[in-house]
Amino acid sequence: MPTPELTEHASTPVSSSPLSIRISNCNNLDSAEITLVKSALNIKYGPNGIGKSTIAQALTLRADGGDALKQLIPFKYRGGTGHPDPTVTGADSIRKVLTFDDRYVSQFVFQQDEVLKNSFEIFINTVEFQNGNQEIEDLFAALQTTFVEQEEFNDAVHAFTHLCDVFGVTKTGVLSKSTRGYKAMAVGGKLNKIPEPLRGYSGFLQSEDPASWVAWQAKGKSFLELSDNCPFCSVESVDKATAELVSREYETATVKNMSLLRAAVETAGHYFDPSYLEQLSEMFTLISEPKPEQLQFLATLRGEVEVFLDRLKLLRGLAFHTLRDQEKVDEYLSGLKVNLALLRSLNSDATRSVVELINAKLEEVASQISVVKERVGQQRGRVKRLIEDNQRQINAFLESAGYRYQVSIQPNEDSYRMLIEHQDLPGHLGSANSHLSYGERNAFALVLFMYQVRHEKPDLVVLDDPVSSFDQTKKFAILHELFRGKHSIRDQTTLMLTHDLEPAIDIVRLSTRRLFAMAKPVAHFLTSKAGTITEKPILHSDLKTFGEVCDANIAAASDIAIKLIYLRRKFEILGMNDASSDVLSSLLHLRAEPDRPIGGGDREPLEAAEVAEAVAKIGKSIPGFDYDALVQEFRDLDLLKAKFAATTVGYEKVQIFRMMLEINEPGEDDTFKKFVNETFHIENEYVMQLDPREFDSVPEFVVAECTRQVELISAA
């Protein structure tokens, strides 16, 4: 297998021990053999449909482990047994892969409320940030230990929370009659004083878990109509009316809520002022509707409990995010002390003992307030630098690529998030996907992906055709950001799979290659034959101007038809529209006399003087050029078939096939004819190219179809 150290003129030495990877039985690939140089940019260039995405998937799924690779079982093996499984060998050191493709853009980028999923982790949560947070949290360690050690009090906090949840209040501060707590009170009195017809059920209704019994009884009630016997004990002549009365008087969910209410009060009761606890307990035994003053009592009680819980929540969560926006940290911390005198319902001995302990711990923190303020200030500075640095880098890229968008990183509760904005519209775009074009999304996503790579540091980065859809300016801006920018991934082991030659030209051949030297680029050409992909190094000297390619092949070819094919290609790429170009075109279209198009599908013959001048010009490249003799020669179908069979170069086969179609067509649908005429008329528009004789980029299926149709062509 060819090794990548053959790259010429590299300014940085390339690893001499690349990974040799073999991928077998994945999708349409029987096998693929590729090399990967560690900590380098590995460019794999090949035509569309060759299997590049399958290579990317295989490496990603192999790293996922388990049976993930089985997703790539070829269709020809599905539904059968005893077939070979998909395998990837030589990639044992690759345990984590990050892949950029369409799926990444759709699943991770441009979320509803942030540009990149989990942007806090990627842009802010650095080791430096984590250390700063820990320093601040250490200052409150003693306070947090207080909560951990007060197990009984923590149980009470859960009970307090339940009371607040079930007793909701309206916007005016009045207790809502639609809440679970209010409805539960309606059954409290009935459980305390059971109606006369149901007193036989007292042992069940006044047990520790009446709700379960009521639910059981309700299920059995549905069988009352099946017999006169009791559905529970088979006693004859059951009193059905009494049995049905249980469900009417005691609804299962309401009984359950009352049981939970009583359990909550029992757990947290001693933290209430005794007089408040007495009033609350009485309200759970009411027979009639609560009076307005009783509802106000509950609303006030609930309000004070909620204030207390909110204060505890703040104390428990003391950290950088709770202090980052506080101008006066000392005043804020002092204001967190609990004043039980203002929370009369909770002013009990039990609550007071815990509150005094908490307030004492806050005093200890206040005694070192200068240290607290210093730590918070340092962390603010770290975050400010991180935000400014990341914003500046990404926005500079967006500007250089010509996009009128910018990003901003903003605090969000206990985290941060990156938002996207347009220069002409204040505020962030909540749904960037509906505003950005396909190209904008991909370019932006690539840069965000780069930051994720820097954060997660995978063993392999896969870029699956990342820049093919962009114009030259944006391609270069993206490649520059990815492999040269401040946060570039140039030191990562990167596999770039592409059907676009331009990245290789920019990075390997042109003067711009010096900008990418630190990425240690290694380029290969991928080719596929009979389901097997192999690679060939693309050296600095392989990337030539189109003129160099054509001149070299004209000189090297022994067949005059091949020489003419490359001369015409040279004229087309140079944009030569004179008589010499018309003469070559007429010859390869096997016209008896040279002519030119004049519009509307019509053509006109060239003047004799024009033909003579054109023949002389062509003769400088192909001595002895004789139009009439060559037309006669090329109209021999058997001769063209022989020329087709003699060349192994896909590009040359396609051009000879096109000549044969001028003599006779196979009589099939002309879709394929149109395809080869339009697709392979001029191979590409780049000034720099690969020699098609050395790097055959014509897909195997095209050559195979040409070969099949050649067999169908017969002399007229």
Q: Assembly type of the shown chains? A: single chain
Give me the CATH architecture of the largest domain, please: 3-Layer(aba) Sandwich
| Contiguous runs where pLDDT drops below 50 for at least 5 residues | 1-15
Shape: elongated
Helix content: 40-55%
Q: Return the structural class.
A: alpha/beta
Regarding CATH, which class of the largest domain? Alpha Beta
Radius of gyration: 40 Å
Average pLDDT over all residues = 82
Q: In which order are the strands of the major sheet placed?
A: 4-1-2-12-11-3-10-9-5
How many strands appear in the DSSP assignment?
Answer: 16
Number of helices: 29
Compute the number of structural domains: 4
Major beta sheet, specifics?
A: 9 strands, mixed
User: How much of the sequence is in beta strands?
Assistant: 5-15%
* CATH topological fold name of the largest domain: Rossmann fold
End-to-end separation: 47 Å
CATH superfamily of the largest domain: P-loop containing nucleotide triphosphate hydrolases
Keywords: DNA damage, DNA repair, SOS response
Domain Protein CR006 P-loop: 356-485
InterPro entries: CR006_AAA, P-loop_NTPase
Organism: Herbiconiux daphne
